[in-house]
Amino acid sequence: MRRTLMLLGGARHQVPAIEAAKRLGLRTVLCDYLPDNPGQHVADVFYQESTTDREKMLEVACREHIDGIISFGSDAALPSAGYVAESLGLPTNSLASINTLSNKYLFRPYLAEHGFNCPKSVSFSAEKDGGSVLALCSGMRFPVILKPTDSSGSKGVTVIAKPEVVAYDAAIAAAREFSRNGILLCEEYIERGYPQVIGGDIFVTDGRVRFWGLMDAVRDESIGGLVPVGEAFPSGLPTDQAVLLKREVQGLVTSLGLRFGEMNLEVIMGRDGKPYIIELGGRAGGNLIPQQLQDVSGINLTEASVRCAMGDEDVDVDFDPLSGEGAPIATLVPHARESGLFAGLDVDPALDRYVYRSEIFAKEGDHVERLVNGSKSLGILFLRFPDASTMRRLLAKAPQLVNVRVR
């Protein structure tokens, strides 16, 4: 009898996990609340249920006699996956550590209390007004960032430049729209010493980071620069700073007792030379980061994630970019700078020559919106360059070289 894996989420970027499970001979049970999710056409069994309803997920898991559960590329469903796994004695990182990683109002205090580098921050109810939150933030250095504590993809994030009540009111309204738990966070903006935010994924087995997929996050400053519009491997971070970053990340993995799995990372190297872990998501990154890192390293991280979820941690994922392995490979997210109807995509020949794969989600005539968070991306371009310097030179001009036509 085939063993069964339950997957929470069947969005486009989650389908590769379903496909990997089926290649491994597993029976797949998918849950997703959306009736038009593409994963339902790949999985063996589909339930249209909310993956954030952990009691419903446990009910489905018991009915289907599952042997493992995974929330691949989804923050929202991670606590449900952890709850089901702990309830049934299945492989998982602890629910306590999952909850800490999934909620910034728990994560920021955890960092501070355990001696990790952390900006000054305060959490509060989404029902508070701008004046009361401004008072809570007394003593913080501006600019500050106000955000939901349980969202991803830069949803609901606002940079506030000055201590003005009207600015706080607008930021609270924007964050409230993407908050499920009703708790928001305000924290000091970290001035970057290294110009790019470090993103990418790591992979942990037996409590140790074995795969270091550190990359430079590509941003489009013409639309605010908050939302990543791509990732570039290798990172240009100097070796001595990379060593500090890796020490901080491994220390956090150990402190939280994380056992296994692919995890999404966002780190800022501050002007003080210290690494600040902004996010350590307990799941694979979006924008097809696992596929990009597979192209870089030759290691199938998606399959490794599935195997770990089924209790097989004997996966060979050893990869360290400091050793010089891997080709210069980047992704870019085509995005609209204004709302309207999608009329096509133009890629300058100087950049187009390096595109080796593209996945465009929008069709001509579709309504598209200005990129304000990760959910507004229109596709992914994969680019392979002859060397890192060519990659960085062209990516610096990417906003001028990739144009989404809107009418």
How does this structure look, described?
By secondary structure, this protein is of the alpha+beta class. Helices cover 29% and strands 27% of the residues. The protein contains 13 helices and 19 strands. The strands form four sheets. It has an eight-stranded antiparallel β-sheet, with helices on both faces. Strands 3-2-1-4 form a four-stranded parallel β-sheet, with helices on both faces. Strand 10 and strand 11 form a beta hairpin. Helix 1 packs across helix 10, helix 4 packs across helix 5 and helix 6 packs across helix 7.
List keywords for this structure.
single chain, 407 residues, alpha+beta, eight-stranded antiparallel beta sheet, 13 helices, 29% helix, 27% strand
Strand element count: 19
Overall geometry:
globular
Number of helices: 13
Helix content: 25-40%
Can you give me a brief rundown of this structure?
With 407 residues, the chain is α+β, with helices and mostly antiparallel strands.
Itemize the secondary structure elements and their pairings.
Layout: E1 4-8, H1 15-23, E2 27-31, E3 45-47, H2 54-64, E4 68-70, H3 78-88, H4 95-102, H5 104-113, E5 121-125, H6 130-136, E6 144-148, E7 158-160, H7 165-176, E8 183-188, E9 198-205, E10 208-219, E11 228-233, H8 239-256, E12 261-269, E13 275-281, H9 289-297, H10 301-309, E14 329-332, E15 340-347, H11 349-352, E16 355-360, E17 367-368, E18 379-384, H12 388-395, H13 398-401, E19 402-406
Parallel strand pairs: 1-2, 1-4, 2-3
Antiparallel strand pairs: 5-8, 6-7, 6-8, 9-10, 9-12, 10-11, 11-14, 12-13, 14-18, 15-17, 15-19, 16-18
Helix pairs in contact: 1-10, 2-3, 3-4, 4-5, 6-7
